[in-house]
Structure formats: structure tokens, C-alpha cells
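Encode chain A's predicted structure.
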Amino acid sequence: MDIEDLEPRKAKPKPRDLDVLGVEELEAYLAELGAEAERVRQKIAAKKAYLSGVAGLFKS
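Encoded structure for chain A:
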């Protein structure tokens, strides 16, 4: 048994209830999601660049 098996699992966050939001609130929420998606894309690019650099060190 791994120690990870003993740790509590994180519950997935529930989707936000969009029915209670107005148009302006929905647009603001969409802009927030777009900004978060861009942040994730930048992190993926940085990690890929790092992995490419590391892989270059081990090629002969």
C-alpha cells in the first residue's frame, strides 16, 4: 500500500451555477476563464521547453 492511498482524495469542484448569473456576470466569468486558460497554456509551454532542454542534455 502506498502512502498516497492513505491520504484523502480531493473532491472535484462542482460547476458554477450559471442560471443565477446575469449577462454581465457571465461575460466577466468567461473573461476570467479565458485568463486562466491562457495561464495554463503558458505553464504547459514552459514545461515543454524545460523538458526539451533536459532531453538535449542526455542525447549523445
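The first helix runs from residue 23 to 58.
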